[in-house]
Amino acid sequence: MKLNSVRSLLVAFLLGSGGSALAQAQPTSPAPFSANPLAFPIKPGTQNFLSGSMGEIRPNHFHGGIDIKTEGKIGLPVYSAGDGYISRVKVSSYGYGYLIYVTHPNGLVTTYAHLHHFAPALADHMLALQYQKKSFEVEAFFNETQFPVAKGDVIAFSGNTGGSGGPHLHFEVRDSKDNLLNPLRYGFAEIVDQIPPIIYNFALTPQSIDARVKGEFLRREFTPVKQGNVYTLADTLTAAGLLGLEVQAIDQYNGANNSNGVQAMELKINGETIYRHNIDAVPFHLQRQVSSHINFPVLKLNNRAFQRLYVADGNTLPIYEIDHNRGRFRIEEGKVYEVVADLSDSYKNVSQLRFFLKGESSAYQVLGTPAVTKPKIGHEIMDSFLKITVADTARKAPNLDLYMGNYKYAVIPSYTTKAGSVYLYNLIGGLPDSAEVKGTRVRFPFNHLVPPNTEFLYSNRFMDITFGKNSLYDTLILQTNRDAQDVFTINNPLTTLFQPAKVTIRPAKLPVDKSKAAVYALGWGKGAGFLGGTWNGDAITFSVKDLGKFKVLTDTVPPTIKLISKSPNQISFRIWDNLSGIASWNCEVNGQWLLLKWEHKTSTLTSEKLDKTVPLAGDVVLRVKDTMGNETVFTTKI
């Protein structure tokens, strides 16, 4: 099948040609090393094992490389994958932790993350830089003459620093445009993979107002049965309208039980390919768009990653080849459709999902009789569709009246189940303020319809929200509230943003000391995540990447410091804060600055001397501040 460029497809679509050719949107990348192939960075030449793969689904990003196991310990030598030079080094307690970038002659860059410590010459340089800047967190950039390396040189030792959940080496390959490339495309013999992907479940989700899955406008999940490398259903499913397919699957490697990501998926309807994706080259700045590649609410609620085999409207990742329906497919009444999805890993092991759909009618039908004690109206939003369920005592489902200001619209029932009669309405056509059936009325909390790909300002008496051009993945049905406890709500935590939105809130009860007050995100439980904010009069402005509940809280309690150990060689502390979090620390011994390395996972500060031959002796003063400026001073003697 001939693949057209995105530009050609869009031109053809706008002119009305509509064909079935897929549009390809893969980023161009340098060819692999040929004369100088990449070497494996851990125990080269022997079998290695992975705990993570390229493209694995993480809560807010694609996993951008491979995680190489290090026998459950730290300190294994880390080798440069090729000739080049160390171009960038970073030290942090978060994210990548201790991190090295190596730039190679062909423009590729390899990265080595969560390191325990660097090779001696580089370690000495970075330690001197920390003392020069009087900061634990530092970053340095080098030219090709400062730290040249040859393939196989030891550049560091493996660790568990940063956001790592256990000892391993995170290894990436990037091109000159900062696209994350799949390291396994270079064919490392150290990794053995003869295991095809494992398919757990799939889901069919409505994409049009006439869509049905087994008679209802409902996302339904199904568990296929494995027969060889084919996963299938014994029964033919019934459906109607425009649908999208989602698949929950993992991949595994020989000798490891970790659940890894599936590299590529292809969808065929009646033998015609309508969708492909390959998580083989992902622009670093677009990693967060994993939230539109998957069913994000299902991941948040159930911790299960369903990858969409269709492209949501706000998804701009260049990893897809799609038809004019962006991978969605239409089911017509009376016709039978074979649905085949091929899932493959980096070593071309393939599993197949195969099932049949028979087109059903989307006309009104009775699927059950509601057991009603008293009439009631419920509603939910599915993408841009409003689904209203009415349970009443009528034998025949009545029409529902939707109100938009002074206008009233009659909506006919779509179907009736045991839960009640269901009415469907596309909110893109306008936001109703209420609905009524036979004297029972419900009001909707909709504020505004916010379009994607444009700047948009919404304002009411207690809140202002500014969405940037790239904030939204898709059209947002905005819902806001401020309750009696001064908790501000913007939709819910199941709504995530690609780029931040700016929010200004006006609390009804102002804090006594604004300098100690900031905005916190209230999560699913009792936790509160610091967001900060800037006060301007009686309003505070802050940025958000996830919607949900927010509240202004005051932090006047300084951090806590506990001495763990002290000796002439080293001193260590445990520090923590009750609310806003640790912001800075400064330690001096007899007035001389001492480096304290921060490990957030254990809340510990551990000293490292610049001159290892000089013992620690004298008065020790440690000052720790939280984000709101509360300070604790701890003194001792060595």
From TrEMBL:
Assigned EC number: 3.4.24.-
Q: Which residues form the signal peptide?
A: 1-23
Keyword rRNA-binding (UniProt):
no
Top EC category: hydrolase
Q: Looking at the record's lineage, which domain of life comes first?
A: Bacteria
Q: Provide the M23ase beta-sheet core domain boundaries.
A: 62-118, 148-178
TM region(s), chain numbering: none
Write the record's keywords in alphabetical order, separated by commas: Hydrolase, Signal
Q: Does the keyword Iron apply?
A: no
Spell out the Gene3D superfamilies in the cross-references: Glucose Permease (Domain IIA)
> Recorded GO terms, molecular function?
metalloendopeptidase activity
InterPro entries, A to Z: Cell_wall_metabolism_enzyme, Dup_hybrid_motif, M23ase_b-sheet_dom
The protein's name is: M23 family metallopeptidase
